[in-house]
Amino acid sequence: xxxxxxxxxGEFREFENAHKTxxxxxxxxxxxxxxxxxxxxxxxxxxNINLSEKVTSDRxxxxxxxxxxxxxxxxxxxxxxxxxxxxxxxxxxxxxxxSGNEYxxxxxxxxxxxxxxxxxxxxxxxNILDDRIYNLSWVQQIPPPGYAYVNDVFFIGKTPMMxxxxxxxPNPFNLNKSIHYHLAKYFFKNNIxxxxxxxxxxxxxxxxxxxxxxxxxxxxxxxxxxxxxxSIKHYNGELTDYFKNKNRI
Length: 249
Hints:
CATH architecture of the largest domain: Alpha-Beta Complex
Radius of gyration: 18 Å
Strand content: 25-35%
Number of strands: 13
Distance between the termini: 48 Å
Largest sheet: 7 strands, mixed
Low-confidence stretches: none
Number of helices: 8
Mean pLDDT: 90
């Protein structure tokens, strides 16, 4: 039995640079499973970003030669992104089952997540408890008409618990509320404890294509840029002078 199965699911995006922050993997005997689309897109009109890039197995195997890979046509480019995420979760489940391999622990992450963690992170993984799933946030719930929320970018736990969640979590009938809400409600309903204590030792951001021009920046600046990207795309924010003055946009 190997210690760790790493399940990477979703649009490829900035995987080639983001995965370089996953250095803790060197401490484990692991297999990596990757399920993604054959094309990767990013559109941010306010930053003049309009990317459409082909995804091939070679772009993965140059970093992970033994990766178990599923690359498929994006069957509906207009479908809500959360349904796409769940599709890849299911594909990863089938890929792991088909492999016939056994693992002590499963890590489920996005291709474009960047991590910064304390030196004892690998030790923490080796000592996780089997009665919970670990996340980068606690499940939050406030009374109706409030909301329930849990982060959806990073889950780790012992194999039986993780397989249960990946296999059984249903596609929501509608996404009038976010996938974060539906995941949180699923955990409540099924009496699954989500331990958010990892947020005390891990920091993260989602890497965007704009980061390609700022790879020399430190982690804090990278987080700032990720936040600015989000603000510009969704809330009419503006890029700060610090990044403008880099003269790379």
